[in-house]
């Protein structure tokens, strides 16, 4: 724990179920994720890093699943969020330092570094720190987003070539999802009990096997409902 109230910006691979699955998939990647406090849990501080989160998405957010429910983790994520918002220059210095260490570790293991900066946020890093992508061309960056124009810019090849985005479905953006799929962009959809073979005529594949969405084929990234999402009745989760 540092003086700002959190340990590191990027999660340790062995402390995160998502990265454990990804690293164990044998795909040749070493992955790490950064977690902030999401939209509703930060509103008391005037901070919203998920500006397009729907009510269903916010209520079912995985920021409160597993170890994320504990006060220690929540306080750490809040401190990290405030550090990013209020100390942007110091934040960037720390982030770059951690990326450097992570890249060196991946190189020693002869693996490709994969970094997801938005574990529980929807920050447009291509605008906040555009130099990250050009300075680390051998790093595969990836994220989910609910920002439709951003996703369409990605499909138009207007984002860095080493930054992969997957669009996230909510209960109120089906038309945007179909627009993204029409442009051959991938869409993540949460299903209640089992994954169908198709959603709106598009192939569904199991995205719970790992977190490496940049390896997916074209179609729908199907995710099983977890945590609070299991009891969702907003329409965020698809299925009865």
Q: What would a concise description of this structure say?
A:
The protein has helices at residues 17-24, 55-60, 71-86, 88-108, 125-128, 131-135, 148-155, 174-182; strands spanning 29-33, 112-116, 140-145, 163-168, 187-191, 198-199, 202-206, 220-224.
Q: Compute the gyration radius: what is it?
A: 17 Å
Number of helical stretches of at least 4 residues? 8
Question: Pairing-aware structural class of the strands and helices?
Answer: alpha/beta
In which order are the strands of the major sheet placed?
Answer: 1-2-3-4-5-8-7-6
Q: Into which percentage range does the β-strand content fall? A: 15-25%
Spatial separation of the terminal alpha carbons: 43 Å
SSE topology string: HEHHHEHHEHEHEEEE
Number of domains: 1
What do you see in this structure?
The chain has 240 residues and is of the alpha/beta class. It has one domain. 32% of the residues lie in helices and 16% in strands. It is built from eight helices and eight strands; from the N terminus they run αβαααβααβαβαββββ. The protein has an eight-stranded mixed β-sheet with strand order 1-2-3-4-5-8-7-6. A hairpin with a 2-residue loop joins strand 6 and strand 7. Helix 3 packs across helix 4. The longest helix is centred in the middle third of the chain and has 21 residues. The protein is globular and about 45 Å long. The mean pLDDT is 89.
Protein topology:
Elements: H1 17-24, E1 29-33, H2 55-60, H3 71-86, H4 88-108, E2 112-116, H5 125-128, H6 131-135, E3 140-145, H7 148-155, E4 163-168, H8 174-182, E5 187-191, E6 198-199, E7 202-206, E8 220-224
Parallel strand pairs: 1-2, 2-3, 3-4, 4-5, 5-8, 7-8
Antiparallel strand pairs: 6-7
